[in-house]
Structures
1.
Amino acid sequence: MDLLEPISQDLEPHLRRELHPGELLLALLSADLDPDGRYGENWLALTDERILVIHANGGSPSVDAWPLADVQRIQTRSYVGNGSLVVELPDGMHELVRFSQGSYFKFSAIPQVVEAAMAFPSPEVGQDEDEGAIPHRRIEHCDTCGRALRRGTKVCPACIKKSETFWRLFSYVKPYKKIAIFGFCLTLTMTAIGLLPPQLNAILIDDVITPVIANYMTDENGVRGQDLTLGQRTPPAAAVELLLWVVTGLLFIHFSRMLFNGIRSYTMGWLGQRITYDLQTQIFSYLQLLSLSFYSRHSTGRIMTRVTSDTERMRGFITTGFQDMVVAILTLIGIGAMLFYMNWELALLALIPTPIMLIVTLFYRKRIHWVFHSIWRRISALNSQLADTIPGVKVVKAFAQESREIATFDKRNTELREARMVSVKMKSYFLPGIAFITSTGSVILWWFGGNRVLENTLTLGQLQAFISYMVMFLSPVRELSRLSDELESAATTAERVFEILDTEPDVMDGPDAKDPGVIEGRVEFRNVSFTYDGFARILDRCSFTVEPGEMIGLVGHSGAGKSTLVNLISRFFDATDGEILIDGVSITDLQQKKLRAQIGVVLQEPLLFQGSIAQNIAYGRPDASRSDII
């Protein structure tokens, strides 16, 4: 699907004047309706910095613009016979353009293009062969749904099923399934034990306290007594004995729960650390296999976020969040069964608020998912600046740019704070609302249950047990509402982490790749062309031959392709067109590791790893002796 439509000649100059120097055009689409629904000509232009709407106005064009950084949410809406593209900004919702149903499909890709533009930094400016063309960038689209893909990935978030994501996430538990099953059994035991106290409380009220009080209230002839002064009656021995047994049972239950909870916490903590280790090791190992093009598309801060904090969040969900969710669900099932067993009519009345809570929670989850994506992008942007600024602090100080870096950091930190405040605001509405809805169940129960006690169709102990179970029932309902945040956060982070693991290296050894043996050093380029972004050619039909022993110097301005030639010889990238041969063999037929082991490279920006100078010199040959190093 082409998102760059040719704009009419009378409107193109207005678009050119609006574009800032270096601003890249990502999408340019025509809308065939005016805001009032009449047919007209309007254009939506999306750049890497702003959203522009160009109104033809019958020959008197006008342009509206909004910064991309202010966009909180953007979506397409479908109406009867037409649709619109709306955006949520700090000051509220705005309708950008309106279009007929025939244009709905192309505009449905715009929200994903906006997300892709906000998630990744802009590449170098690319031009078509026509030097007068407007600078633009190509956006890849999903083969299944046609949505725009984030730059640098072929994974479409819209086509990923959350169930598949979670099944894949829990596959990391499989090597430790015995430990996981043991922890699950402890969870079942704790849940079952937790259902016993209300039953013992009912026995305490109906069989111990209530009969004794009734006995105190009457004399030996069954006449209501007048002297009820405290301390003047001796309780029956049978009541005291039963009281002792009930209290002992409650003490044993609480001690057992404490013991099982401690064992479960240690077990799940052990499991969580193993899962974190496996995840981080797998991601780091896979990162070593990815091509340099992956690192040119993703900032260091974003990658570090996925390896560290994202995997930690996934671990927290698997070991804590998921366990809490299982406990809550099992508790709901167990208590629900007890409620219906004790009195199905009261149970139905008490559960009236539950469908309302489910509807509210589903709506909340749908909204909060977008918010978590926004927060993640801003955290990554903040980490990216830290990853760039701290190693480059000498450059910052050399050019006296401390205040500039502070201002940039403050801006990104403010954006992160505002994104988090959106989440805080939603929670401030959602969680108290859920608490109020759940409390109405207790109010309903007190009214109808209290009337039954007064009518002598329900004992006080049974009502107390029923209310206790209802309170226990509402607690996991609130917990599940809270865990919906953690569920969406885990889904978001899992998608980000698996996006790395699903990225295929651009440079791979073929099935028949061979060991080059001892390389003599004959290098030949045959009509080699190369482009980083698919548009601007760094090398164009380049051909030359270097014989073994020759010393060649490459001279040219910055960006002429000197470093690119070295990258291609080392096969950090594959040539876009043409062929590169080493000793008469195509470089694509050679094993990368064996090839690079015989190529010495002094990088344009030298990097020293932690360790001694000798260790850094011997990095390419860890077995080198001290004499070899010297």
Note: Residues 450 and 463 are 8 Å apart (CA to CA).
2.
Amino acid sequence: MATRWNPCSYLPRRLQIVVSLTAFVLACILFLGTSSSDHTVDPYLDRVPYGPRLQAGAHHVVDTLPQIPHELPHLDTPHSSGEARWYTDFKWRNPFSSAVTLDEERALLPPPRERPAVYTYVDSATRRKDDVSQRAEGELLHIWRRAWWAQGFKPVVLSRAEAMNNPHYRAVQTLELEPEMETEMMRWLAWGTMGTGILSNWLAVPMAEHEDALLTFLRRGEYPTLTRYEGLENGLFVGGKEDIQKAIKAAIDAPTIKSMKSIIDATPDGTFEIDSKHSGVAFYSASAIRSLYPVISQKLDDQDTVPEGLAMLPPLINSHLHMTWQNTFSSGIAVLKPLPEHTTSIIEPAIDIARNLSHSHMPITTPPIFRNISTLFTIATVPHPYTLTSLVHNQDVMDTRFIRRETKRDPWILAATKELLGTGRSSFARLGNPALAEEDLDFHFGFQIPRDPMPDGKSETPVPGPERRPPPPKPEWGDGRELSPEELHHEHWLLAEARRTLSRSDRTGKKGGIAGLGIAAVRGGVGRKKEEVLQAKQVRDVIEAWNLADTETWKFVRAFEARRRVERGRWEEEEEGFLGGADGARDGWGGGWIG
């Protein structure tokens, strides 16, 4: 048998395998890689982007992404007060404000809640002429404004000028009404001019917790029907402008209006919807005072003692507002004291506020952690990271190396939120400054906080008055050891030096100067070299960058308090024409006592 000839027999065996595999791959590419002319192999292959189509698609996706702004949006209203600056945005829950504001010094705050207007009517022509009555009426009106403001409303005082702008004013003027009914109609005419809202007698004040059902409904600002409230007589009404004008027209057309003393009696049945389930507003009407406070009623009924009776009403109403607040927080007052071994001097202003609020009826504690309890009122003094670092490490001069190697990050917020209990509502009053102005505190709580306590704690009045307050809280477990007088004095010195450093660095950071940016620079005087002063400023920046969460908390609290003061200041400017601001209200402005 003849031997078959193999062309690869002349090649080594390994090379034969390589040549065979190569020939097989080339055959596959030649026969399987050729595309069909009628494109029936796989119609989806043509839809897969490649080459230029793939590059164009990538650019399209990038172009559709949201663009990051390169500058802060235009601010239509003032967003700064002193050294505090803020920006309002719905993205305020972002962990870091600078991610939205693009400004390390500007805090990000939630949009402020709109305050529904609550109106009252005061006719200066009917007010009494004696000084005692004028001052008492002014205090009553100030109490009314302060109580409604604290509950989230915008109090507005109306006068005859608003009533004259109502189209029904001329019709009312042609009627010969009783003085009491004429005042009632002027009040409604002024309310009708303003439109939808709340009409309140200035002796009707909110006296309930913030989440009361009636107050919650009133804060919504939507009143579908004209409503009055059972038991409050003519003390409180809510409704829309059309319903208000219809009620005024119905009262004018009533044939018996000349003998009536209230618009409720002058209008037909069905004009008002009557709400009988409410307990959020107290009205100190003539009938209520007559039944509950006969001593005051007797003085008000006698023309010779009316000034004395009026003077007794402001402290009475203020004490009731204070007691209502105390009953809301039945568990007492907690003054937050994280890191208790080093923060005694920081919380001293908060302790004073708590003692004034307690009025000997509420326990005061200083827990090291924040507990979310709805019946516990918590006051927290939020320090700047520089201040806290100085106190914790007993250092008045620090550098970058010390901060990074010897200090912990965000010690205050971590210590305060170590244990969160409950999910209910809790009032967490953040006090960004060492102490708030007394007037700011009154408008925050809705009543005048007792002040000027007697040193010995004794009361000179027959009944314990607001000058009596409890002693400072005793140290408890978890509060740390009690500091000696020398240690407390040294802590006060460190606190003062840290605050001085922060205030000077704030001023210099704005003006671009170099004087007074740090404790080392202060000791050396203005003649220090510029490098040393800038280094002191750099220490603060390093501390803020090292404690991002504590810094964000401090900025938020400072800006939140500043915005609240700006909001109230703007409102008082609007009311200044009639009341002369907060001080003017106490100087005797106000109308006659309205039963």
Note: The first helix runs from residue 13 to 32.
3.
Amino acid sequence: MISSFLSSVPKLKGRENYDDWAFAVQKLLVLKDTDKYLKQEAAATDAAQTVADARARAKLILTIDTSLFVHIKETKTTKELWSKLKALFDDSGFSRRITLLRHLISIKLETCENMTSYVTLIVETSQRLRGTGFIINDNCVGSLFLAGLPDEFMPMIMAIVRSGIQITADSIKTKLLDM
């Protein structure tokens, strides 16, 4: 059963897909009730915990591209492996924040295939930006949804503004996807 879940987890290739991989792996370990080993070491005196930790580590390794094994071969526990990968690939530095912020504010519906891909791109980019520690509130994301729309959507934007509804990511996302 676990192999079917493993196949749905993207292989970690490096910095370019670390965020998506980390999210998927955390959920995989939740399914097997071993996600606690990402944050804490197994009790050295508890054989069952040691075995569970080793299994969790093995599951993680199966989701990592073989070209990255050189970085993780020396790790002994799930927590150590997780920390090592986070240090290597979790890019939350200032330049990453600026890059993501620039990308987020430049997203336009005209450059996307359709409304769904537009909405998905804004949500995904804002989540990545939040993942770097940058604080972006829900109202701002909702406003960015509206800001990236072409002029033909101006009547809808004006109607939303005049209606007095709270501009949030979810409220605007729902309206856009219902179109």
Note: The chain has two domains: 2-89, 94-177.
4.
Amino acid sequence: MLLSLAMFCCCLNGVKATPLLQDTIQDKTYRLYPLGIACRNGDITTIKQLLAGKDEPMAMSSDCYEFDILYTAIYFNKEDVLKYALTRYKDINDRVYSDEYGLTLLTYACRLSNVKLARILLEHGIHVNGCQSPYDTYKVYPIMEAIANKNIELVQLLLEYCADLEIKDSNGNTPFTLAKEAGSQEIENLLLQWMR
């Protein structure tokens, strides 16, 4: 009887779930850590478990950079994950991603032409013009990304949140000159209305 009980306990021990190793890449295609996989899958329960510690784990990486849950939620277009992360992290205006472009969360959402996620970020108080480091190689702003993508709905949204129409990118373009270069008459007209 005692031998049977010992064997049963050994079997139970063998079926225990192994803990997720947060610092181990689990998905090599997207270079996702467990948090990134949970984010991609929209698995809020697992996300909450992974974020329960005091340290903020990374979600995905590239050869040179690592990215957090906010960036990853935008990358995978996960509205619920982004909303949850925004309730947890209040420093959204301090998060600039350390690649050569220094994209803010809003700039990244605009680069992906994602109006829905841009609106959520703006509703949570993100700076409409971004806030880049003066050491960045390029000057990339949310409105410039929206114009480059010829996304009039996104341009309109940014204007409603008082996007600066006098800012200049690395090439000295203002939003209006970029719209002219892009050949978007509709966006040019919209910008002219807001410049008055």
Note: Residues 78 and 148 are 23 Å apart (CA to CA).
